[in-house]
Design brief:
The complex is a heterodimer. By secondary structure, chain A is an alpha+beta fold. Chain A folds into three domains: 94 residues, Butyryl-Coa Dehydrogenase, subunit A, domain 1 (Orthogonal Bundle); 109 residues, Beta Barrel (Butyryl-CoA Dehydrogenase, subunit A, domain 2); 134 residues, Butyryl-CoA Dehydrogenase, subunit A, domain 3. Chain A has twelve helices and ten strands. In chain A, strands 1-4-5-8 form a four-stranded mixed beta sheet. A four-stranded antiparallel beta sheet of chain A has the order 2-3-7-6, with no helix packed on it. A two-stranded antiparallel sheet of chain A has the order 9-10. In chain A, α4 runs antiparallel to α6, α8 runs parallel beside α10 and α10 packs antiparallel against α11. By secondary structure, chain B is an alpha+beta fold. Chain B has three domains: 116 residues, Butyryl-Coa Dehydrogenase, subunit A, domain 1 (Orthogonal Bundle), CATH 1.10.540; 105 residues, Beta Barrel (Butyryl-CoA Dehydrogenase, subunit A, domain 2); 146 residues, Up-down Bundle (Butyryl-CoA Dehydrogenase, subunit A, domain 3). A four-stranded mixed beta sheet of chain B has the order 1-4-5-8. In chain B, α5 packs antiparallel against α7, α7 packs antiparallel against α8 and α9 runs antiparallel to α11. The chains are: A alpha+beta, B alpha+beta. Chains A and B meet through α8, β10, α9, α10 and α12 of A and β10, α8, α9 and α11 of B.
């Protein structure tokens, strides 16, 4: 316990001394996030300094082993670090699918050579990754994916199309599910491969969304050469890797409600828009819904903490990640609907000075995807029905 | 935050689970109801609960209790909820014990706490008066009279009030109806002249009473806690009550949910097991999610009480609000999925619906606590 206290004191002191003032301001737009990568242009000198300092500490990936760019911290130490960062409002130094998704998969399924090649650049923010999972005919039913990967002796050749590839147009490398065998059941014959987005034959085209933004791409592969050393895990058994990674993704998406919650609470947004009369939000109908949503939000974040604590105690999160994903995303949509209700005409502004380029309206629309991506809410309910409730035919 | 049970807690839960399932299953409640039992619970069971330490779960060892705290109390209440076990646990071991522990003089503690822990005294809290929970709305009065007080007013939903050995009555000693200040607590013998008790058997076949106080004279040492400042003690009593009721709702809701899932795995219609229908699967899975969220709320509230957390009020409001809604949903979905047999007295699901209806009302329903939550957050 005292070790943790000492760590907390050290972390606090270091953060105080090293986190630039500008990096302690709330995030006001997507541009404030640092994604890194070959072509990254730092938004400010402070953003660059902050990343470099955190990289040097191994704190962009605190729990990863030191040889892969981490700091080898325990979960408890990581939690303390997070709390200390939250205490001064420090921004995350690096947003990265490499950290959130590829890293956990490589740590579990990768060879030592793969870990040493790919993890340190992720930790340093030098290589930006994207995820090649969904296809036009393999969305919720992901295992139906058809992108073909042929064995050409010393290398593979990949042909096909991915869709909903997040930031594929800005990514340096892709981790991608491909079909190496289509003779058996659909979950068999899938492999998990890595390749450079600059490889000839790769073409990423942004998709414009209802939010007016284009965070996703359609990504086409035409005779793309992939080195054999870039196959992760066992050939034809990539579904194991995919499932493991999806569990991480669900936990992350499910936790989004909380991330958003770190901004202004819903009731404050409502109060500043509608006013307070006799100590109560001026619209009594909306007030009740806001209270209900905030109670659910609080109980949900306690549940995330409880499930993670249970998992730490040795139990596996398993299908409960579907419960968290389902509940968290539906809750997030509900909160944004209420924010739109609360802000009324103001919230509808799409291009204007005071709306910060339609931030709320665009975010509201973006949340609609939360319950679709990473497996729809209906798919999560199917998973709960099958694996937790063990209902017949689920 | 104690969101995962430790080894001692797991052991207690397992003990309580076996105890109530064996000694006081739903059939025991049916028997009490069908026999029109005068007491409304089994005194022998209550004695056994005392022997197990359950009656003294939040009472200090100096006064004969086991002082295991509110998480332990919640684990016991949860198992009672699963089995619809009738006992004075809530009225006596939670509410009265907390009131006397928090507000009592050394004499009052010595007089009552060992009796509570030993299962020898049943004590009821006479607080609410109208159709809805509203502590500040207390209008019963206690006027100074000689060296003591004279009480007048009427009380409703006094849990176990018809067989209580003592009543803890909230009455106004100053201020106006609606003021949180000016309320005082008195502990008195229900056989005192001027106390009229009507047993009201509630929809869940459990006990409550309406109590009329007509010029009831009590001595000065009947005062429990400080004059005019009863709310300070009541706040802690109600937090304890709300967390315990939320825990019982968790147990009752979980049992209703699990028995429903079991049923839809067996029931066949249209030549297929109805649990194969996605319409039911998705509702069941949604309910599973809600029950998990609800469990966290209950555990957090119980932990907040044990930790004397400064936000304990808010935790308890959250838990009571969440459980009020979720357990109700579990019972409603249960009756619907059981279908026709869900409407019959023979099946237990209806008994769960009735108990949950009562519990969600006690000490404030979901609307009440959403309002409290909003006020505490200044909106």
């Amino acid at each position: 316990m005292t070790d943790l206290k000492a760590f907390a004191a050290q972390a606090r002191e270091w953060l105080e001394a090293n986190c630039p003032e500008d990096m302690r301001q709330p995030i006001s737009s997507d541009k404030d996030l640092c994604w890194g990568g070959r072509n990254w242009e730092f938004q400010s000198e402070a953003q660059k300094t902050w990343l470099e300092r955190m990289v040097a500490k191994g704190w962009t990936v605190p729990t990863w082993p030191k040889e892969y760019g981490g700091a080898g911290l325990s979960r408890a130490e990581e939690n303390i670090l997070k709390k200390e960062m939250a205490r001064i409002g420090a921004r995350s130094p690096l947003s990265s699918f490499g950290i959130w998704m590829l890293g956990p998969a490589l740590l579990k399924f990768g060879t030592e050579e793969q870990k040493l090649e790919h993890l340190p650049p992720v930790a340093r923010g030098e290589i930006r990754w994207c995820q090649g999972y969904s296809e036009p005919n393999a969305g919720s039913d992901l295992a139906s994916l058809a992108t073909k990967c042929e064995d050409k002796g010393d290398h593979f050749i990949v042909n096909g199309q991915k869709v909903w590839t997040s930031y594929a147009d800005q990514a340096d490398w892709i981790f991608c599910l491909v079909r190496t065998d289509n003779t058996g059941k659909k979950h068999h014959g899938i492999s998990f491969v890595l390749f450079d987005m600059e490889t000839p034959g790769v073409d990423a085209r942004p998709i414009k969304l209802i939010s007016g933004r284009s965070p996703f791409c359609e990504t086409f592969f035409e005779d793309v050469r992939v080195e054999k050393k870039n196959l992760v895990g066992t050939r034809d058994r990539g579904w194991d890797v995919a499932k493991y990674l999806l569990t991480h993704e669900r936990e992350m998406i499910g936790g989004q409600g909380q991330l958003e919650g770190q901004g202004r609470p819903l009731h404050e947004i409502a109060a500043s828009s509608l006013g307070i009369e006799d100590g109560r939000l001026a619209d009594p109908m909306l007030r009740a819904k806001v209270a209900e949503a905030e109670i659910d939000d609080w109980a949900f974040s306690l549940t995330v903490a409880r499930k993670l604590a249970e998992a730490k105690a040795g139990a596996s999160l398993g299908a409960d990640s579907s419960m968290l994903k389902y509940y968290g995303t539906e809750l997030n949509k509900r909160k944004y609907e209420l924010m739109m209700d609360a802000t009324g005409h103001d919230g509808l502004e799409w291009e204007s000075d005071r709306s910060n380029d339609g931030k709320l309206a665009r975010s509201w629309l973006r949340t609609k995807g939360n319950s679709i991506e990473g497996g729809t809410s209906e798919v999560q309910l199917n998973i709960i029905s099958k694996h937790i409730l063990q209902l017949p035919g689920a | 935050m104690g969101l995962v049970l430790n080894d001692d807690e797991v052991m207690l839960r397992d003990t309580a689970e076996g105890f109530f399932a064996n000694k006081s299953p739903v059939t025991a409640l049916r028997k009490l109801r069908d026999d029109r039992d005068e007491t409304g619970f089994d005194r022998a069971l209550w004695k056994e609960m005392a022997d197990m330490g359950f009656a003294g779960v939040v009472i200090e060892e100096d006064h004969g209790g086991v002082d295991m705290g509110f998480m332990a109390a919640g684990l016991i209440a949860e198992q009672m909820g699963r089995n619809l076990s009738a006992s004075p646990f809530l009225s006596t071991a939670i509410l009265a014990a907390t009131a006397i522990r928090e507000g009592g003089t050394a004499e009052q503690k010595a007089a009552w706490l060992p009796k509570i822990a030993g299962g020898e005294a049943i004590i009821s809290l006479a607080l609410d008066e109208g159709p809805k929970h509203h502590p500040a709305g207390t209008s019963a009065t206690a006027e100074k009279s000689g060296n003591g007080f004279k009480l007048n007013g009427s009380k409703a939903m006094v849990v176990d009030g018809h067989i209580a050995d003592a009543l803890i009555v909230a009455a106004r000693t100053s201020g106006e109806e609606g003021d949180a200040e000016g309320i005082s607590l008195f502990i008195l013998d229900p056989k005192t002249k001027g106390v009229f008790t009507e047993r009201t058997i509630m929809v869940d076949s459990r006990n409550a009473a309406r109590i009329e106080l007509d010029d009831v004279e009590v001595s000065g040492d009947a005062l429990l806690g400080s004059l005019d400042e009863g709310m300070a003690v009541l706040g802690k009593v109600l937090n304890a009550g709300r967390a315990a009721v939320a825990a019982e709702l968790l147990g009752a809701g979980s049992q209703a949910f699990e028995s429903t899932v079991t049923y839809i795995k067996e029931r066949k219609q249209f030549g297929t097991i109805i649990g194969e229908f996605q319409a039911l699967q998705h509702r069941a899975s949604h309910l599973y999610s809600e029950m998990e969220i609800a469990r966290s709320a209950v555990m957090a509230a119980l932990t907040a009480l044990d930790d004397n957390d400064s936000k304990a009020d808010l935790y308890c409001a959250m838990a009571k609000a969440k459980l009020g809604s979720v357990a109700k949903l579990a019972s409603q979905e249960g009756v619907q999925m059981f279908g026709g047999v869900g409407m019959t007295d023979e099946y237990d699901i209806g008994l769960f619906m009735k108990r949950i209806r009562v519990l969600q009302e006690l000490f404030g329903d979901a609307h009440y606590h959403m309002n409290q939550f909003a006020l505490a957050n200044k909106f």
